[in-house]
Design brief:
single chain, 3-stranded antiparallel beta sheet, 5 helices
């Protein structure tokens, strides 16, 4: 919501805006990916979401939306929620779960494909990394190398790694999960995701 700010003289300035957008709805289905949720709403209920990510999807609303549209969305979500509650085959449900939905598969717990987990060791600043020569190596074998490009998933659009940071096993698992789910990883020179740009090896950075 809006909040007021004060100047040094104690007078109220123009109201600022808190970083919260109530027009965006973040939707999550436990044990399912954002792409699954988006696909279900599109194919079964003719509802189109704005974005889909590993563990959630985003619906954008506006003043142009109608009460009937909101009621359709609510009814669709209730129906999907009911169906998920009725699932009893746990083995089948586990097969459908992705890496980013299973906390026990992420180092130290948490979401293995969450940008919050991508706390990569910083070896060089982005400016320093930009000056180094680079090469492409297989993504699967890049653990320990210093990344030479941005890699991010939108939404939320926050980089999973930036140039100058060290590539970790957690990052590789996240990228593999995103590819299996058919999500769009952006920033990589190799759009297939099979190779990644890294800094050429030096004795020390």
């Amino acid at each position: 919501g809006a909040k007021e700010s004060q100047s040094a003289g104690g007078r109220l300035e123009t109201p600022g805006v808190f970083a919260q957008d109530n027009s965006k709805l973040i939707l999550r289905a436990e044990g399912r990916s954002g792409k699954w949720l988006s696909s279900q709403l599109r194919s079964r209920f003719s509802l189109e979401l704005e974005m889909e990510a590993g563990g959630y999807a985003i619906a954008l609303t506006s003043i142009a939306d109608t009460q009937e549209g909101f009621e359709r969305l609510l009814a669709a979500l209730k129906q999907l929620d009911k169906e998920l509650d009725q699932e009893t085959d746990r083995a089948d449900n586990e097969i459908k779960r992705e890496v980013f939905e299973e906390p026990d598969r992420a180092p130290g717990g948490g979401n293995a494909c969450s940008w919050e987990m991508m706390l990569n060791p910083c070896i060089l600043t982005m400016a320093e990394a930009d000056a180094y020569p680079k090469e492409n190596v297989l993504t699967a074998g890049s653990v320990g190398r210093v990344c030479g490009e941005y890699i991010y998933l939108y939404p939320p659009g926050i980089p999973l790694i930036v140039p100058g940071e060290q590539i970790s096993e957690a990052l590789i698992r996240c990228l593999e999960a995103c590819r299996r789910e058919g999500l769009s990883l952006q920033g990589m020179q190799d759009h297939s995701g099979k190779t990644v740009s890294v800094l050429q090896r030096r004795e020390k950075f």
